[in-house]
Specification:
Two copies of one chain form a homodimer. Helices cover 42% and strands 22% of the residues of chain A. The first copy, chain A, is α+β, with helices and mostly antiparallel strands. The first copy, chain A, has one domain (32-115): Gyrase A, domain 2 (2-Layer Sandwich), CATH 3.30.1360.20. A four-stranded antiparallel beta sheet of chain A has the order 1-2-4-3. Chain A starts with a helix and ends with a helix. In chain A, 32% of the residues are buried. The model of chain A has no long low-confidence stretch (mean pLDDT 94). The interface between A and B is medium-sized, with 17 and 17 residues. Strand 3 (76-80) of chain A pairs antiparallel with strand 3 (76-80) of chain B.
């Protein structure tokens, strides 16, 4: 789990193949409680985080935003009162890539930093 | 349209009735291009706003967050690269209330301020 957190996103092109189901299942074991969901025919990684109120949820959204800008890879972030749901996938390949698992691991790292 | 922007949310209880379909349709005419959508059996107001990049989208999310805190009424905000989708509804009554239309109008007001 520690290893993924230390990696960085690599550039993808339209010709980069999305991960196949076996690769995805193997990588899911490397991240903590992320699930794969299919929406609009595209596989994504999804995880919900809970907070005490709206302000704390929005603060987390901003931390994820800064992480996304740093890595040049952007999620969908659903911010609500007391919860934030993050979706990672790779737009250009309409599917999942190693980059998404790296970002999932880095997302968990931000949560751990909050809790320490 | 100007009127709603000047109003403020009023407290709701579990006994407050949600708006009926006729009331909702009448109020939809008072806001700009908001649509009603049903998700998980609950009617919500939905509108998507577009931006030049992720940073501008996240900045708008934060403006909506400040508005929500000021009024004590909180939306679901989906932040993505170049777009933000806002959903307003009233959690405690599992439906739509005049407050949601007030917040929709105030959301548009924030956009107008950006464009001025």
């Amino acid at each position: 789990m520690g290893g993924l957190r230390l990696e960085h996103c690599v550039p993808c092109s339209r010709n980069t193949p999305p991960m196949n189901p076996d690769e995805i299942d193997a990588m899911l074991a490397e991240v903590r409680a992320w699930e794969k969901v299919e929406e609009d025919g595209i596989l994504r990684l999804k995880k919900q985080f809970t907070f005490k109120n709206f302000t704390q949820a929005l603060a987390f959204t901003n931390k994820i935003g800064a992480l996304a800008e740093n890595e040049g890879h952007h999620p969908a972030i659903l911010t609500e009162w007391g919860k934030v749901t993050i979706y990672w996938w790779t737009h250009i390949i309409h599917g999942l890539h190693q980059n998404d698992f790296i970002m999932a691991a880095k997302t968990d790292e931000l949560v751990d930093q909050r809790e320490e």
